[in-house]
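Schema walk-through. Below, the input block comes first and the output block second. Nothing else is stored per chain. Lengths vary across the set, and this one has 183 residues.
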Amino acid sequence: MSGFQALLFSGFSVLLFGPAVGQSEFTVSVEQDVYEAEENSNITMTWFFPVDTGKNPDLHVQNVKLETYIYSYSIGSDDKPYVHEIYRGRLQCDTQLATKGRLQCLLTHLRLSDTGTYQCIVVLNSNSSYKPCVLNVTAASEEPAEKTPKPASPKRIWIYLGVFALTLFALTSLALYSIFNKR
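--- output ---
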């Protein structure tokens, strides 16, 4: 998705979920605007929003590039949170913290394809607010290869054989000397 399309899509989301005329607005904030992580590692993205004790908000995390919600949860609902199939088993958001105005989502086993803009959309009655953040996933650095012992070179094998032959000759000579000197 081009930058213009992402901006247009974000603007459409605000219009769609924007506050009705005459209603107060609230804001969603994010702990970091940009998250950096390495492939195959884990990252925790955190958003904050005000809590109104009388009302239960709906929470959505959207992958802007995919143009889809990757997580949805209604606080106070008996329904389990929805997690998009691409993120199942890798995305966990703390529903207990969500009741306190904090959406904390752990994304594990990061892939290069996880790179992109994510936004948390909080809908409370007719009001909504969102805050995007960027996740940059870089390729994992190569682990240093374990050193495997090199096989002995042919030159070294001849040296070992020579030392063994000399030792064997010396021991045989010593044994023969001691046997013939006793007589």
